[in-house]
Hints:
The chain is α/β, with parallel strands linked by helices.
Amino acid sequence: MENVIELKHVDKSFGDFHLKNISMVVKKGYITGFIGGNGVGKSTTIKLIMNLLQPDSGSISIFGLNYKQYEKMIKQRIGFVFDENMFYEQLTLAEMKDIIRPSYINWDEKQFNHYVEQFELPLNKKIKSFSKGMMMKASLTIALSHHAELIIMDEPTSGLDPIFRRELLDILHHIMQDGDKTIFFSTHITTDLERIADYITFIHNGELIFTKKTYEIAEEYALVKGGMELLDRDTEQEFISIRKSNAGFEALTSNKARIEDIFGDLVLVERPTIEELMFYTKKGAK
């Protein structure tokens, strides 16, 4: 299986922040969700992948190529969809397209018009009049119009209403049907990833926690609920973190099978949401 993105032992420091020994891959033909709290290294990692930053050490390859030799070739094959507007607001979408089009050797005018029509985008209105949802569709249209093989999305659903977020996820699902595209999707709205992501990459405090298939998270991790009498110094060590109350405890484990062996039917074992996974990992780190 081909790795579209590959980071090997990447380090990057900014003052007190340190991205530490990141090794991760993004596989061709899948949607990989990139999760983590604010300030943990998501944006830094994306900027490294986009060659907007260079690592202090380690290596980064895209499509098996390195930026030093093949930057133009790599960027021809990538589409970027950002949370914020990256276009000239005083221009229309048609005018913006005319500026962007010469940059891409694989620009497809028919494809551009297809998505403009599908997304109901106004070609002759100034971009400053676009809603957040329209801006997201415009960015995605540009990415798809030069047949980008890798689409990097940085918080694309932030600030969108639930109905439009669901529509965008359906669009992404449709885009992936041919198996030729890869999406790397950074977001803090984890319910979106539970709907569409094939893989989840979790970063915390500048360190990679895991990259796993989405279904593997449900198989390995569990949210455990039980009475306080079940906890002692030894059993507490089985959990990533624990929240205690007068009603009992709630805790996260990364070894569901072991917890079931230890506690049997004395505890309630539930599938954790990605949000709960992030919360308890952060709590455990503290």
